[in-house]
Amino acid sequence: MLQLKEVTKKFGTHTAVDQLSLEIPEREMYGFLGGNGAGKTTTFRMILGLLDKTSGDISWEGKAVNYEKSHLIGYLPEERGLYPKLTVKDQLTYLARLRGMGKTEAIKELKSWLDRFQVPEYLNKKVEELSKGNQQKIQFISAVIHKPKLLILDEPFSGLDPVNVEMLKEAVVDLKEQGTSIVFSSHRMEHVEELCEHLCILHKGKQVVQGSLREIKRSFGKKNLSVYADFSVDFLSNFPGVTKYKSVMEGCELQIENEAVSQGIFTAIQGKGFVRKFELEEPSLNDIFIAKVGASYE
Ligand SMILES: Nc1ncnc2c1ncn2[C@@H]1O[C@H](COP(=O)(O)OP(=O)(O)OP(=O)(O)O)[C@@H](O)[C@H]1O
């Protein structure tokens, strides 16, 4: 387990990470959400031992983490940095050897990743000949080639087209199933919602939400209600307990104060005509973020 206890990082007078306490379970995928400047990269760099913390404690399996010395950790940094003039093969075998792998084994692993990403022809290409997105795939391979136990991915999906996003998602899911603990950051709620059992949302260095996705959603209650009907449902905009009303082609989408309000609405629409949909939904992470942080988030 990776543990952070009251971790703070100050740059001069600016507090980039403020009293962050987290427990990141083993063999899971853990999501860090937050807008630009929220403190995600700073937290990762502190976890890896690449940046000193101002105060607090960080431990993995009971010990301090040292990325430079441990072969059990993989890291995809936000600022991608491959040597443009080297071939994929030379570069990745070099990096894999730094992380304790033999050359033959590294080439075998590299080839299997290139096959998986459907780019076997890149083996002997120079990095500068590849598109940005494909360079990112190569950098991802450099983070996982040595089969780390703990994998930290800073914005792994940014800049990739939808096909490559799916390919990378499948790869991280497989790594998790093989027992890797994965921590990744994203601006995109839906990626974290889809992939993570546990997550935290950072806002200006502070954690505003933390825990299991299921529990977080449950604690918010089901407050989104869709009502699609063959009669006008406009009167629901003034219904007691309705906090937000959106008219849509087929009816309306509502936010309600609590689940009990839906019962009143259900009674009120009965007998008025044909109801095609009446659905109480869990909040999305986006709803939760906005409720916690405010609508200013982009
Ligand atoms: N070396 C540094 N010196 C001074 N301030 C820094 C330094 N690194 C980060 N910061 C500040 O710390 C805050 C957190 O930055 P960080 O890069 O951790 O955010 P982030 O959540 O990763 O953002 P993004 O999504 O934009 O990458 C920001 O206000 C940033 O300006």
TrEMBL record:
Locate the transmembrane regions by residue number. none
Q: Does the keyword Magnesium feature in the UniProt annotation?
A: no
Q: Which UniProt keywords apply?
A: ATP-binding, Nucleotide-binding, Transport
Molecular function in Gene Ontology? ATP binding; ATP hydrolysis activity
Record carries keyword Nucleotide-binding: yes
SUPFAM superfamilies registered for this protein in UniProt: P-loop containing nucleoside triphosphate hydrolases
Q: Which residues form the ABC transporter domain?
A: 2-229
Identify the InterPro entries for this entry.
AAA+_ATPase, ABC_transporter-like_ATP-bd, ABC_transporter-like_CS, ABC_transporter_ATP-binding, DrrA1/2-like_C, P-loop_NTPase
Report what the protein is called: ABC-2 type transport system ATP-binding protein
Which SMART domains does this entry report, sorted A to Z?
A: AAA (SM00382)
Family classification: Belongs to the ABC transporter superfamily.
Domain of life of the native organism: Bacteria
This protein's species is: Virgibacillus chiguensis
Which PANTHER family has this protein been placed in? ABC TRANSPORTER ATP-BINDING PROTEIN (PTHR42711), ABC TRANSPORTER ATP-BINDING PROTEIN NATA (PTHR42711:SF5)
